[in-house]
Amino acid sequence: MLIEDYISNGYDKKDGYSDFEGAKFSDLFKRQRELPFGSKLQNHALNHRMNEEFKKYFPTCEFTPIIRVVETNRYWINENLINVEVNKLIFNISHAILEIIDTYVEVKRGAFENFISTCEKLKELEEEKNPKSYEFVLSLLSPNVDARIFEIVSFAILKYFYFDQTVFFGFEINDIEEENLKLYKTGRTNANDGGIDFVMKPLGRFFQVTETTDVKKYFLDIDKLEKFPVTFVIKSEETSDVLLSNIKSNAEKQYSVKAVVDNYMSCIEEIINIPELALRFNKAVEFGKLNDILSEIIIQSKIEFNYEDYENEDNDVE
């Protein structure tokens, strides 16, 4: 959006961008919603996520891609990243950047269409009660699977793993009732909404799905809940003991106070890795929940990838 604004104002061919008043947030937001996969985006990318992702992959770069003035709500692309010097000549790569982005969008669209095709395949397997559906779900429990797919599959498996487990609750000793454990998904994946991924009733357990080994992320999730215990579902095939040991080791490097590290570590209620998810999937299948798991994956995938919106978009094009 910012590159488009940069080009539309002619700064790919002239100087003076440093004196430009900046793009309005309202204009950028409107354009964002018009772009592929942008219909549900909020302000996170412009205000925080883009710069943080850039910093993660280019930690030694002195420039920040998006420049923002909060008071005026105006935005600029950092021109230092657009004007590239080669052999003492300056080349403006703004048009090349747009070509790369457009190509990336088409690749993502293709991957999206393949995923929807996968969802339909799941649906057919479910209806035919085809034994291949078991292997198909297991194949989605992989370290290199898309993070959103992993979260959806993890939720479906855990929901029906806990489904037949019961606890006894009541306020009076003579009025105790048996309740099934129920797992709820609290929002979209990667929503950057500060929320926790899954919550369980009636125990009040919280689950957070992650693929990172950055201890800051784990402790940030714990801080969100003011040190309330959290179960982490980690997209890794390393053992839970190794993962826990790595988290503690990294925490000790970052925090020099043992009491602080111990306080955070005590809030990790459980670690569920890929092998443990596979075991729980097998248990759920033994209880006859394979078709329920498949149905849940389809439902959550269509919600996550705006399947209905995408279908409507294609119909509009026709």
Overview of the structural elements:
The chain is 51% helix and 17% strand. The protein is an alpha+beta fold and 318 residues long. It folds into two domains: 2-92; 106-317, no CATH class. Helix 1 packs antiparallel against helix 4 (94-128) and helix 6 packs antiparallel against helix 11 (290-304). The radius of gyration is 24 Å and the shape is globular.
In short:
This protein is an alpha+beta fold. Helix content is 51%, strand content 17%.
Entry keywords:
318 residues; alpha+beta; five-stranded mixed β-sheet; three-stranded antiparallel β-sheet; 12 helices; 17% strand; disordered C terminus
The fraction of residues in strands falls at 15-25%
N-to-C SSE string, H for helix and E for strand: HEHHEEEEHHHEEEEEHEHHEHHH
Overall structural class, as computed from helix and strand content, comes to alpha+beta
Rg, rounded, reads 24 Å
User: Main sheet: which strands, in order across?
Assistant: 8-9-10-11-12
Q: How many DSSP E strands? A: 12
Percent helix? 40-55%
In the residues, how many domains can be counted?
Answer: 2
